[in-house]
Design a protein that fits this description.
alpha+beta, Jelly Rolls, 2 domains, 5-stranded mixed β-sheet, 4-stranded antiparallel β-sheet, 11 strands, 49% helix, 16% strand, elongated, HTH_AraC, AraC family transcriptional regulator, Tscrpt_reg_AraC-type_HTH
Length: 303
């Protein structure tokens, strides 16, 4: 897989204009302007740059990570260094939009170098883009305009600090808007929870639990074609529980049924549920139910 270490070589590969700054490029379409389009197609590639773009695809397909990007209505998306990017036919964008690309070294020595790693949306799968309202678009466009002014001006000792400050503001707004999206898109959250539970149910029913042990959250997320971080954030926002807690609840629910079979020992139940060590199962069961597996079984017998 081809990897680009500098912003210049990356943009050259895309057949886009070279950057005004060796570590920063800004493309913005205002008025009758238009965004330049990248080369017609590309196999999977990676680079050492961050990308923040607001675009609408008119035609073509863009793949980032595992999934096809859905931003026909216009969406803000984020690409982190060394993430896999691919497009398989000519991608045509609507004229409006913006794209900011900056090398990870551009942030060295700044607070943003540490802060940016806390923004989960850089690790999200691409179909989990941020869908902006018209008002939100205008707010971000004004910030990008400020960045572009500094980008186009003659560089001085204040330029980088001003640009970094504006980038930080842009990301803070994006974080706020994502929070709004998590709250407003309850239908998506419910769908993800249903899919998550369905994946777990199928895993248990197929016998994989006994054969391969408890699945990782990453494995489940991959099967759902979403990122682990986005799945966890969405379910946490909607239900108040993490993906791990949802997984544990399902295992405990299965355990209750199995514990009602008197011929099974506690150890057998634990092993069949994918626990490598029975004492870990017993600790988790008591933590969630307030009684041990043995006490739960005895309580059922009395009833």
């Amino acid at each position: 897989m081809q990897h680009f270490k500098t912003l210049s070589t990356f943009l050259e590969y895309l057949e886009l204009p070279g950057p005004e700054h060796p570590m920063l490029s800004v493309f913005s379409a205002t008025g009758d302007g238009f965004l330049p389009c990248p080369k017609e197609s590309s196999p999977p590639i990676t680079n050492d740059c961050y990308t923040i773009s607001f675009k609408k695809i008119v035609d073509g397909n863009l793949n980032y990570g595992r999934t096809n990007y859905d931003f026909n209505n216009g969406a803000l998306f984020f690409i982190a260094p060394r993430q896999v990017l691919q497009w398989i036919k000519a991608v045509v964008f609507e004229q409006k939009g913006f794209s900011i690309n900056f090398h990870e070294d551009f942030l060295k020595g700044t607070d943003l170098a540490h802060q940016i790693k806390k923004y989960g949306f850089f690790s999200y799968s691409v179909n989990e883009a941020l869908h902006l309202s018209p008002k939100e678009e205008k707010q971000l466009e004004s910030i990008v305009e400020n960045i572009e002014i500094e980008y186009q001006n003659n560089q001085d000792e204040f330029s980088k600090d001003i640009i970094i400050s504006q980038l930080s503001t842009l990301l803070k707004y994006a974080n706020r808007f994502y929070e709004r999206q998590f709250i407003n898109r309850k239908e998506l959250s419910t769908s993800l929870l249903e899919q998550f539970n369905e994946q777990l149910s199928q895993y248990v029913a197929s016998g994989e639990l006994q054969e391969n042990g408890i699945p990782s959250i990453e494995e489940i997320a991959n099967n759902m074609s979403v990122s682990q971080r986005y799945l966890s954030d969405t379910l946490k926002k909607e239900t108040g529980k993490t993906t791990t807690e949802h997984l544990q609840l399902l295992l405990i629910d299965e355990a209750k049924n199995m514990l009602l079979q008197p011929h099974k020992s506690i150890a057998e139940v634990a092993y069949e549920l994918g626990f490598e060590y029975p004492h870990y199962f017993s600790r988790l069961f008591k933590k969630k139910e307030g009684v041990s597996p043995t006490e739960y079984r005895e309580k059922y017998k009395m009833n």
